[in-house]
Amino acid sequence: MRLLSASPFHRPPLPNLERKSGWVRTLAATGRLSVSEGRIAVAVRTTCDLDLPVFSLVSLADNGGQDYRLINAKGLGKLGSADEWREAGIRPAIRSTGISAFAFRIRALWSVWAEGWKETLDCFDKQLEVQVTDILTRRTRLQLMYDDSNLAVSELYFFISQLLRFASVWIRESVDDLHDFVLQLQDQHFSPAEKTHSPHASFLPDSPEAQRAAIEVFRQNWQSVMSHQQKLADDLLDRIAKKQEEVSSLREGIFTATAVSEATKSKQLNHYILVFTVVTIFYLPLSFVAVSQLRTLLYCSPSAPGSR
To answer: Which residues, at least 6 apart from 157, have a Cβ–Cβ distance to it below 8 Å?
Structure first.
């Protein structure tokens, strides 16, 4: 699970982790917006040939403890009660109960993943917040229309717009990765054909009826996980699309105002050049014109006879 975490406070990158991070100046006098990549991982280790399986789950978060705090706050360090499993649409299935617990944990962690993205988008909202009074007040209106000499506003808008683009790509990749993972898990461990080749590599029981029941439970469990993730992803993508339109509108406003301002300055400069040219022509000293013309005639006249 991959996400971007935004914060007004700078977080140094964690040691020995190849994670992307950076910051940009905000519109506040001394403010900055720090953004870092974070990932959430979950692993399972389970038996596959016991009707009462033995398994263990491990959840990891590596973005400075922000997601680990959410994991603890939601009680995701536990396996969950029977009511929570029922509400999530997850059922145990004898040998594959460890896989069912794995599905339940992943489904719960998608909520943490979505909360992390929402906090990042909330942080972007604070940087792009524009009220009606900001438009009606001339001072704040001009601040939104024109950039400073350091291009701080344009840099902030570009920074956020590009991060929103990457966020959309990463969220879609997460959806595709989950689908690929479920298909791979099904082909390797929940296929009757696979069981005939390697009995210890399958979670399916021996009887055909029990096999069909286990496969159906597997599909229902992971369908619940995928549909839950898809709903969270759709909500995030809709919000990102709206935020991209907002940033694009603000950037276009700056570009339009800047272009009009530059065109006005260029027109005034051309007017000054025209006035300077006319004044120069009319007020050029006549003696200078006469001397220049005389020198031209002398230069063009033929040489005297006998001269070399």
So the answer is: 247, 250, 251, 254
Nearest to 18 by CA among 33, 4, 1, 38: 38
And the tokens for 165?
A: 């683009």
| Tens of pLDDT, residues 196-233 | 555 545 677 778 888 888 889 999 999 999 999 999 99
Distance CA 170, CA 19 (A): 14
| Distance separating alpha carbons of residues 136 and 247, to the nearest angstrom | 20
Q: Residue-wise over 127-136: b if at least 16 C-beta within 10 A, else e?
A: beeeeeeeee
Label residues 51-86 b or e (16+ Cβ within 10 Å = b): eebebebebebbbbebbbebbeeeebeeebeeeebe
Domain map (residue ranges) of the chain: 2-252
CA gap 232, 163 in Å, rounded: 19
**Rounded distance, CA 144 to CA 146, Å?**
6
Output the CA angle 243-248-254, nearest 5 degrees: 130
Q: Lowest-confidence range among 5-14, 42-51, 249-258?
A: 5-14
Token pair, residue 108, equals: 């719960």
